[in-house]
Write a structure and sequence with these properties.
Elements (H helix, E strand, L loop, with lengths): L1 H9 L2 H18 L10 E7 L6 E2 L14 E7 L4 H13 L5 E4 L1 H6 L1 H9 L3 E4 L13 H18 L9 E2 L8 H9 L3 E3 L3 E2 L8 H15 L2 E6 L3 H16 L3 E7 L56 H4 L28 H43 L2 H19 L10 H5 L1
Parallel strand pairs: 1-10, 2-7, 3-4, 3-9, 3-10, 4-5, 6-7, 8-9
């Protein structure tokens, strides 16, 4: 606060007002001694690892809550003095803050490199102890030993071990559910990335630059994955930063929340790389929520007083026989409501339906008898043909007469008189 007052005395009121409204992050971006055209760090966001345990859309649904054209720079595998120190100098020339994921063995061999990262104001996370590319299949006990080894040696290299951020990146991004659950249970945020520059491959610095810019342009914002132990990264990084500035991108620093430093207020939708727009219809219907229903087995019947209405006289004398307004349950319907008078339309329709069913049954029975008679006649004819003789011809004629008589005696449907006439 004292620094702000001194600054306000030496500058115009307009500059002072802009400084106070922009905040410390914006002031840091504008104040880079000796480098007036530096890219700078536009702002710092504070994240709570327990609220968002996994980030990076290369593997997970969420990423950091970045605005359009905002980038977070991350570097893996250091510190390695030959190249890590050069990366630190390039970032210092641009007044940029980044996030480094160190390896325990590297921190053990070069603790001074870890202290340089902290002194420069960068965020330091861990990247296992020995960088094994088997995290997706190793036993959880071995994975835990790798995680703990990286944390132990990196924090031991620091003057203040509390400066170590609870951020972790799996070597090779070889995710495993057991590892993810373990880190989440310990409050360690698991970082993937939104796009890499492939600087660990045997490609030229120019190719690293091209991939970084092309993939960033395709995403519009996000977490860039680089390595501070590669010579091609050192060669490509200055050009990448100049191009970011030329295209209007801004660098964001990320730090973990603490008791004295609460998380930056955000909405859940901000943690998506491309939040859904209200102007575009949703592709999927929203899921049905789980309601908590009442445990009561029955509900009371509504009262007439609930309806703000009075019972008409004609309703009171109807079949339902409502006793009175204000009854606590629905009235039992009167017995004559279900009576059907003899000769009514309902009775006649039921009778007609019964006769129709009887007729269909009679037809089916006759058809079966005829089919049986025909089959029997054909059997007898075959026997006669086999033995020959006049008696066989007589038997065949008899079978034909039997079939004709059966057809003649088949039941015919009874013609029903008009229902209206019968009612009269």
């Amino acid at each position: 606060m004292i620094g702000r007052r001194v600054s306000c005395r030496t500058r115009s009121w307009i500059v002072c007002l802009g400084f106070l409204t922009a905040g410390p992050a914006a002031a840091l971006a504008a104040d880079c001694p000796g480098h007036p055209d530096a890219l700078g760090t536009s702002r710092t966001i504070v994240v709570d690892p327990r609220e968002h345990p996994r980030i990076g859309t290369m593997q997970y649904r969420e990423t950091l809550p970045l605005r359009d054209h905002e980038v977070v720079l991350t570097f893996d595998d250091g510190p390695l003095p030959k190249y890590s120190n050069q990366v630190l100098q390039i970032l210092a020339n641009e007044c940029i803050k980044a996030t480094f994921f160190t390896i325990g063995k590297q921190a053990q061999a070069n603790p001074e490199g870890v202290r340089k990262l902290v002194a420069a104001g960068h965020t330091v996370g861990t990247h296992s102890y020995s960088h094994p590319l088997t995290f997706e299949k190793m036993p959880i006990e071995k994975a835990q030993a790798e995680i703990d080894g990286g944390i132990q040696w990196t924090s031991a290299a620091m003057t203040d071990p509390s400066a170590l951020a609870p951020f972790f990146r799996i070597p090779g991004l070889l995710r495993a559910q057991g590892v993810e659950n373990l880190l989440a249970s310990r409050g360690i945020q698991l970082w993937s990335a939104d796009f890499p520059a492939d600087d660990w491959r045997h490609v030229s610095p120019e190719r690293v630059y091209q991939l970084a810019i092309q993939r960033l342009e395709a995403k519009g914002k996000g977490i860039l994955l680089l390595h501070d132990i590669q010579p091609r990264t050192v060669a490509a990084l200055p050009k990448i930063l100049r191009e970011l500035k030329a295209r209007g991108y801004r660098i964001v620093n990320v730090v973990p929340a603490t008791a004295d430093r609460p998380a930056t207020p955000t909405e859940l939708v901000e943690w998506l790389l491309h939040p859904p727009s209200e102007n575009v219809a949703a592709v999927r219907w929203p899921r049905i929520p789980s309601f908590v229903f009442t445990r009561s087995e029955t509900l009371r019947a509504p009262l007439l007083s609930d309806l703000n209405a009075e019972l008409p006289r004609q309703v009171a004398s109807s079949h339902w026989g409502v006793a009175k307004a204000g009854a606590e349950s629905l009235a039992v319907p009167s017995r004559d409501l279900f009576e059907i008078k003899e000769g009514s339309l309902e009775v006649l329709m039921a009778t007609a339906a019964s006769r129709h069913v009887a007729t269909r049954l009679a037809r089916a029975t006759t058809a079966d008898a005829v089919s049986s008679g025909n089959a029997k006649g054909r059997g007898q004819a075959a026997a006669v043909a086999a033995h020959g003789g006049k008696h066989g011809q007589t038997t065949h004629a008899t079978a034909k007469r039997t079939a004709r008589n059966a057809n003649a005696s088949a039941a015919r449907p009874t013609k029903l008189a008009s229902l209206k006439k019968r009612q009269q």
